[in-house]
Records
---
Amino acid sequence: MFAAEGYSGVSTGELVRRAGVTRGALYHHFEDKRDLFRALVEELEEELEELVLGAARGAYEGGGDAGEAYAAGFDAFLDACARPEFGRVLFVDGPSALGWDEWHEIDARYALAQAEAGLRALISARRMEDRPLEPLARLLHGASIEAALYVAAAGDKEKAKREAREAMSWLLGGMGSLR
């Protein structure tokens, strides 16, 4: 429901009706609609992490190097962001429904660790110069969030994914990781 109608388009009454539960059952597990949404965001972040890491691992185990694994993970991220349950729920409604600080803490818990691990692999493979990881990971994380919003809002999602991939490739190439 949140993916199709957006956070503000879903009422608690409609939620319990379509889930086939009572309000009491909902409130037994969650404080309110926002608490349910927070749990959904956490679940989607875990699923997104599995998709991204799985794609990166698959590329690496398939004979690719650290750069190809990073690119495969980013491609999987963009593919997920084209789906409303990820793009709309996580990146469009997530910050407004939960508030920037809470949403960012949840998102960063997953995404920053992935970004740092990917950069560490690129440095270890000598695909990029050794630099402090945290600021660079935060910058790439910010770029990834903007790419997610770009893809989620696009009428032509395939074109938007292609453009975001090219832009990230250009950014990473400028860091020397795709030489």
---
Amino acid sequence: MLPRHIGIILDGNRRFARELMKNPWEGHKIGLLKARDVLRWACNIGIRHVTAYTLSLENIKTRPKKELNYILKQLEQESKTILNDAKHIVHQMKVRVRFIGRTNELPEHLISLFKEVEERTSSYKKHFLNVAVAYGGQQEIIDAAKSIAKKVSRGEIIADDIDENVFIQNLYVPNQPMPDLILRTGGDHRLSNFMAFQSAYSELMFIDKKWPELTEKDFMDAIHEFEVRERRFGG
């Protein structure tokens, strides 16, 4: 059975650029083009939900300013392309785009662009792409807890009614399946604060290749491996 939802950690852009004797941050532009390819591969085989981890909340605070500005510029340019190019993969495949994370910490003009993209693609129901930017899994849990606490204080729910389903409804994107598969490129074997709540029963796969090096065969091999795994869901 195909995964309904794949989470992807796009790792290895900077190392890839260094190997090409480029500035490390230039790898993010190459990685963005690869992301379009991977979205197409996923849509072509019928995967409906993809969450791409593009920029962590920690990265915003720790990356060199020049590199961070370059990454944000790529996100800006891609958003404008989605808004202006009817042939973009998002429109071809009818993909609804949502930006998840503490996006309020990003520049105002970028927040506005993200909202435009979300509105522009809001009618698409065939596929769904969550772009995790200024994102942290632990922070998402904290934000969900705050949202629930406010509802309790307003009398909308009572504390005894809080369960997993209530918590899920207060995550950044409610009403979507939990990720069946989380795929990470770049060689590291960790989740790096990605979907900390949602990944409880996800199958994990780690690929040594850097993100821009990923091929369609690599992607399909991961899907085939997922299909033959026996999922136990804690059993």
